[in-house]
Write a structure and sequence with these properties.
Bound molecules: iron/sulfur cluster
CATH topology: TIM Barrel
Largest sheet: 9 strands, mixed
Mean pLDDT: 84
Number of strands: 9
CATH architecture: Alpha-Beta Barrel
Order of helices and strands: HEHEHEHEHEHEHHEEEHHHHH
Strand content: 5-15%
Helix content: 25-40%
Strand order of the largest sheet: 6-5-4-3-2-1-7-8-9
Structural class: alpha/beta
Oligomer: single chain
CATH class: Alpha Beta
Length: about 375
């Protein structure tokens, strides 16, 4: 319980830092190994032979991300659990005070492995499940992974989110609902994403998938995940483009196994600069660079970073947009809306939050630039 409370506090601090300044990376995803033990048909992020990135190189990369002020560092892949020194990498992230996350297919989890992740002080784990029964497209199925979910629910001291996806390649949309309900039944959080093409852009949802998307999105998640409570994915699920600015390469970084910084996993090669040479000036320039792939982009973690920046610059519009069209906003959004937007004490709440969550906040220049739109 105490661990969960401490983690939530650190997450709130991350959000507050992100709300105060637009000059540091909020989230970096880094690949410790490109190899994967599975071969999902829709995936372009794995191979079946790459060696793990040597530990020294990984630690140097983590240290440099910390120097850039990165709030949250997630290990992705390939399958990161195949890396022999994963625990040491997680410990290094935590030693820098950043939030440590792991994105896995879950196949290699065991009680012992979960205990080691607890010891390394992992903050979050995301496990992706695509279907109820394995098929030719994906083996990430509830049938195989339910035992792992039960283990996680019993033994993990880190937060666990189960992400399912919707899209043409996955033929039974109701599977995503079954997976999300099972996750909630076990006390885990559940989110849903949309399948993208090789450029990271939307493959339109077939009929029937939107209804399932909507039902999962209504399962309340804590505010700070904001995964199910943003309009980006809702528009895309309806086949509509988004009008937004992608700050990838600045507020979000993707670092491949060769140690190069890319906008995201789907736009590799831009800018393709070694992380060791990446500077705050690179962060600012790439964050400001327009991306033509933005309107139909489905990369939800970059949407969440953009949402944080919208909250920083246009809090009222943004919180209003988080309320679904029928007005049934989750309790967390309603409370935040009252505290920070509509309450007559909103200035007091804002000052209190800034003082509690970000020591020294009042001396930072970006605070005063926040505009109530
Ligand atoms: S488990 Fe993940 S990384 Fe591996 S092939 Fe499937 S989607 Fe790609
Ligand atoms: S809009 Fe940004 S996150 Fe999306 S595909 Fe393009 S570069 Fe990647």
């Amino acid at each position: 319980m105490l661990t969960t409370a401490k983690r939530r506090w650190r997450e709130a601090t991350m959000v507050a830092r992100g709300l105060q300044s637009g000059r540091h990376p909020v989230l970096a995803q880094i690949v410790p190994i490109r190899r994967c033990n599975l071969a999902c048909v829709y995936c372009n992020e794995f191979d079946d032979h790459s060696a793990p990135v040597p530990l020294d190189a990984m630690l140097e990369r983590i240290d440099h991300l910390a120097r850039l002020g990165t709030s949250r560092i997630e290990l992705s892949g390939g399958e990161p659990l195949l890396h022999p020194d994963l625990d040491a990498i997680i410990q290094r992230i935590r030693r820098h005070g950043a939030l440590a996350g792991l994105i896995t297919n879950g196949y290699l989890l065991s009680e012992k492995r979960i205990a080691r992740l607890n010891e390394a002080r992992l903050d979050h784990l995301q496990i992706s499940i695509d279907n109820v029964v394995p098929d030719d497209t994906s083996k990430k199925s509830l049938k195989v992974l339910d035992r792992k979910l039960q283990m996680l629910a019993r033994h993990a001291s880190f937060g666990v989110n189960v992400n399912s996806v919707l899209g043409a390649e996955l033929r039974i949309p109701e599977d995503a609902l079954t997976i999300a309900r099972r996750a909630r039944e076990l006390g885990l959080t559940a989110t849903v994403g949309l399948i993208h093409d090789a450029g990271g852009t939307l493959v339109p949802l077939p009929p029937g998938h939107y209804r399932v998307y909507d039902e999962i999105a209504r399962m309340t998640a804590p505010f700070y995940t904001v995964q199910n409570q943003n309009d980006f994915q809702r528009h895309l699920a309806l086949g509509q483009p988004n009008d937004w600015h992608c700050s990838a390469g600045g507020r979000y970084l993707y670092i491949c196994e060769d140690g190069l910084v890319h906008w995201c996993s789907q736009q590799r090669g831009h800018p393709g600069i070694p992380l060791a040479d990446y500077t705050p000036a690179d962060v600012e320039r790439e964050a400001a660079t327009p991306k033509t792939c933005a309107p139909l982009c489905t990369v939800s973690c970059v949407h969440r970073v953009a949402l944080l920046d919208r909250l920083r610059t246009r809090p009222l519009d943004t919180i209003e947009a988080m309320v679904p069209p029928d007005g049934r906003a989750p309790a967390s959004v309603r409370v935040l809306r009252w505290m920070f937007v509509t309450s007559r004490h909103r200035d007091r709440f804002r000052r209190l939050a800034a003082r509690l969550l970000v020591p020294g906040a009042r001396s930072r220049p970006d605070v005063s630039s926040t505009r109530l739109s």
